[in-house]
Specification:
GO terms for molecular function: ATP binding; ATP hydrolysis activity. With 209 residues, the protein is an alpha/beta fold. It has helices at residues 42-50, 83-93, 99-108, 124-136, 154-169, and strands at 4-13, 16-26, 31-35, 57-62, 68-71, 142-146, 173-177, 189-194, 197-201.
Protein backbone atom coordinates (compact mmCIF):
# COMPACT_ATOMS: atom_id res chain seq x y z
CA UNK A 1 0.00 0.00 0.00
CA UNK A 2 1.36 3.46 -0.85
CA UNK A 3 2.24 5.73 2.05
CA UNK A 4 0.14 8.49 0.48
CA UNK A 5 -2.45 8.68 -2.27
CA UNK A 6 -3.96 11.99 -3.38
CA UNK A 7 -6.99 11.73 -5.63
CA UNK A 8 -8.48 14.71 -7.49
CA UNK A 9 -7.49 17.23 -4.81
CA UNK A 10 -8.82 20.76 -5.22
CA UNK A 11 -8.46 23.79 -2.97
CA UNK A 12 -10.28 27.08 -3.20
CA UNK A 13 -9.84 30.19 -1.11
CA UNK A 14 -13.04 32.08 -1.73
CA UNK A 15 -13.31 32.56 -5.48
CA UNK A 16 -9.63 31.74 -6.05
CA UNK A 17 -8.75 28.22 -7.14
CA UNK A 18 -5.26 27.29 -5.93
CA UNK A 19 -5.29 23.54 -6.63
CA UNK A 20 -7.31 21.74 -9.26
CA UNK A 21 -7.58 17.97 -9.79
CA UNK A 22 -4.24 17.08 -8.16
CA UNK A 23 -3.49 13.36 -7.93
CA UNK A 24 -0.28 11.82 -6.61
CA UNK A 25 0.96 8.50 -5.25
CA UNK A 26 3.92 8.33 -2.86
CA UNK A 27 5.60 5.04 -1.97
CA UNK A 28 8.21 4.06 0.59
CA UNK A 29 11.65 5.21 -0.54
CA UNK A 30 10.35 7.97 -2.80
CA UNK A 31 12.05 11.37 -2.82
CA UNK A 32 9.83 13.75 -4.77
CA UNK A 33 10.60 17.28 -5.90
CA UNK A 34 7.66 19.60 -6.55
CA UNK A 35 8.53 22.86 -8.24
CA UNK A 36 6.39 25.88 -8.96
CA UNK A 37 6.46 29.64 -8.85
CA UNK A 38 5.47 31.81 -5.93
CA UNK A 39 1.78 31.37 -5.20
CA UNK A 40 1.54 28.17 -7.24
CA UNK A 41 0.14 26.24 -4.28
CA UNK A 42 3.17 24.19 -3.19
CA UNK A 43 2.82 25.07 0.49
CA UNK A 44 -0.96 24.67 0.31
CA UNK A 45 -0.54 21.14 -1.07
CA UNK A 46 1.84 20.20 1.73
CA UNK A 47 -0.55 21.61 4.32
CA UNK A 48 -3.36 19.47 2.93
CA UNK A 49 -1.17 16.36 3.07
CA UNK A 50 -0.19 17.19 6.65
CA UNK A 51 -3.81 17.72 7.65
CA UNK A 52 -3.24 21.36 8.58
CA UNK A 53 -5.95 22.55 6.21
CA UNK A 54 -8.71 20.58 4.45
CA UNK A 55 -9.04 20.09 0.72
CA UNK A 56 -12.09 21.62 -0.94
CA UNK A 57 -12.55 18.41 -2.92
CA UNK A 58 -10.83 15.08 -3.43
CA UNK A 59 -9.37 12.56 -1.01
CA UNK A 60 -6.15 12.15 0.96
CA UNK A 61 -5.46 8.52 1.79
CA UNK A 62 -2.64 7.68 4.19
CA UNK A 63 -1.23 4.31 5.13
CA UNK A 64 -2.39 3.56 8.71
CA UNK A 65 1.25 3.45 9.86
CA UNK A 66 2.24 6.80 8.38
CA UNK A 67 3.72 9.40 10.70
CA UNK A 68 4.12 12.79 9.04
CA UNK A 69 6.93 15.21 9.79
CA UNK A 70 6.66 18.64 8.23
CA UNK A 71 8.61 21.83 7.71
CA UNK A 72 6.18 24.13 5.93
CA UNK A 73 6.86 27.83 5.37
CA UNK A 74 8.38 29.50 8.44
CA UNK A 75 8.93 27.14 11.38
CA UNK A 76 6.85 28.13 14.40
CA UNK A 77 8.77 28.06 17.67
CA UNK A 78 8.44 29.32 21.24
CA UNK A 79 10.58 32.37 20.59
CA UNK A 80 11.71 32.91 24.18
CA UNK A 81 12.78 29.30 24.68
CA UNK A 82 15.87 27.34 23.70
CA UNK A 83 16.24 24.78 20.93
CA UNK A 84 16.19 21.95 23.47
CA UNK A 85 12.99 23.22 25.09
CA UNK A 86 11.30 23.67 21.72
CA UNK A 87 12.21 20.23 20.41
CA UNK A 88 11.28 18.58 23.70
CA UNK A 89 7.93 20.36 23.73
CA UNK A 90 7.11 19.25 20.18
CA UNK A 91 8.19 15.66 20.79
CA UNK A 92 6.20 15.43 24.03
CA UNK A 93 2.96 16.20 22.17
CA UNK A 94 3.06 12.74 20.60
CA UNK A 95 4.91 11.18 23.55
CA UNK A 96 7.96 10.64 21.34
CA UNK A 97 10.56 12.42 23.44
CA UNK A 98 13.93 10.90 22.48
CA UNK A 99 16.87 13.00 23.60
CA UNK A 100 19.19 10.33 22.21
CA UNK A 101 17.84 11.17 18.75
CA UNK A 102 17.48 14.93 19.02
CA UNK A 103 20.95 15.72 20.34
CA UNK A 104 22.86 13.96 17.51
CA UNK A 105 20.57 15.58 14.94
CA UNK A 106 21.35 19.00 16.38
CA UNK A 107 25.07 18.26 16.27
CA UNK A 108 24.75 17.07 12.69
CA UNK A 109 23.46 20.52 11.73
CA UNK A 110 25.98 22.34 13.93
CA UNK A 111 23.41 23.48 16.49
CA UNK A 112 24.18 23.43 20.22
CA UNK A 113 21.42 21.33 21.75
CA UNK A 114 22.34 22.34 25.31
CA UNK A 115 22.54 26.07 24.61
CA UNK A 116 20.15 28.38 26.48
CA UNK A 117 20.04 30.74 23.50
CA UNK A 118 16.46 31.80 22.75
CA UNK A 119 15.03 30.94 19.34
CA UNK A 120 14.36 34.61 18.64
CA UNK A 121 18.13 35.06 18.39
CA UNK A 122 18.52 32.35 15.76
CA UNK A 123 19.39 33.32 12.19
CA UNK A 124 17.25 32.26 9.22
CA UNK A 125 19.59 29.36 8.51
CA UNK A 126 19.64 28.21 12.13
CA UNK A 127 15.84 28.27 12.28
CA UNK A 128 15.70 26.25 9.07
CA UNK A 129 18.02 23.65 10.57
CA UNK A 130 15.82 23.44 13.67
CA UNK A 131 12.78 23.05 11.43
CA UNK A 132 14.39 20.17 9.55
CA UNK A 133 15.32 18.47 12.83
CA UNK A 134 11.78 18.61 14.21
CA UNK A 135 10.45 17.12 10.97
CA UNK A 136 12.50 13.92 11.35
CA UNK A 137 13.33 13.57 15.07
CA UNK A 138 10.33 11.35 15.89
CA UNK A 139 11.17 8.73 13.25
CA UNK A 140 8.53 10.10 10.87
CA UNK A 141 8.22 8.07 7.68
CA UNK A 142 6.62 10.72 5.45
CA UNK A 143 8.61 13.95 5.56
CA UNK A 144 7.35 17.16 3.96
CA UNK A 145 9.94 19.90 3.40
CA UNK A 146 9.03 23.34 2.09
CA UNK A 147 12.08 25.19 0.65
CA UNK A 148 14.43 23.29 3.01
CA UNK A 149 17.65 24.80 1.59
CA UNK A 150 16.66 28.33 2.60
CA UNK A 151 19.48 30.05 4.49
CA UNK A 152 21.64 26.93 4.74
CA UNK A 153 25.42 27.12 4.37
CA UNK A 154 27.44 24.52 2.47
CA UNK A 155 27.98 22.31 5.52
CA UNK A 156 24.27 22.29 6.34
CA UNK A 157 23.38 21.53 2.72
CA UNK A 158 25.73 18.54 2.82
CA UNK A 159 24.10 17.39 6.06
CA UNK A 160 20.65 17.76 4.50
CA UNK A 161 21.57 15.67 1.45
CA UNK A 162 23.02 12.94 3.68
CA UNK A 163 19.92 12.96 5.87
CA UNK A 164 17.55 12.63 2.92
CA UNK A 165 19.65 9.77 1.52
CA UNK A 166 19.42 7.96 4.85
CA UNK A 167 15.66 8.48 5.06
CA UNK A 168 15.30 6.98 1.59
CA UNK A 169 17.48 4.00 2.49
CA UNK A 170 15.29 3.44 5.57
CA UNK A 171 12.22 3.16 3.36
CA UNK A 172 10.83 6.54 4.28
CA UNK A 173 9.44 9.04 1.79
CA UNK A 174 10.33 12.69 1.37
CA UNK A 175 8.41 15.36 -0.53
CA UNK A 176 10.39 18.54 -1.20
CA UNK A 177 8.55 21.60 -2.45
CA UNK A 178 11.02 24.15 -3.75
CA UNK A 179 11.30 26.72 -6.51
CA UNK A 180 14.79 25.46 -7.36
CA UNK A 181 15.90 21.86 -7.81
CA UNK A 182 18.91 21.21 -5.58
CA UNK A 183 20.70 18.64 -7.73
CA UNK A 184 22.83 16.83 -5.09
CA UNK A 185 19.59 15.36 -3.75
CA UNK A 186 18.75 12.13 -5.60
CA UNK A 187 15.09 12.60 -6.46
CA UNK A 188 13.05 9.65 -7.68
CA UNK A 189 10.43 11.87 -9.33
CA UNK A 190 10.09 15.49 -10.42
CA UNK A 191 6.76 17.31 -10.57
CA UNK A 192 5.63 20.79 -11.52
CA UNK A 193 2.70 22.64 -10.00
CA UNK A 194 1.35 25.25 -12.39
CA UNK A 195 -2.11 26.70 -12.85
CA UNK A 196 -3.31 24.59 -9.95
CA UNK A 197 -2.37 21.33 -11.69
CA UNK A 198 0.42 18.89 -10.92
CA UNK A 199 2.30 17.26 -13.80
CA UNK A 200 5.33 14.98 -14.05
CA UNK A 201 8.45 16.63 -15.47
CA UNK A 202 11.93 15.70 -16.60
CA UNK A 203 14.98 16.68 -14.59
CA UNK A 204 16.15 20.25 -15.04
CA UNK A 205 19.37 21.91 -13.86
CA UNK A 206 19.21 23.63 -10.49
CA UNK A 207 20.01 27.32 -10.14
CA UNK A 208 21.44 26.71 -6.65
CA UNK A 209 25.17 26.22 -6.46
Amino acid sequence: MPLLTLTHIAKNFGQQTVLSDVSLTVNAGDVLHITGGNGSGKSTLLKIIAGIIPASAGTVQLDPNVQIGALIENPGFLEGESLKTNLSFLAAINHHLKTATMQPLAARFALDYQSHRAMRKYSVGMREKAGIIQAVMEDQNLVLLDEPTRGLDDAALTALVALITELQQQGKAVIIAAHDRYTPIRYTEDWQLEGGRLSRTVNVPSSIH
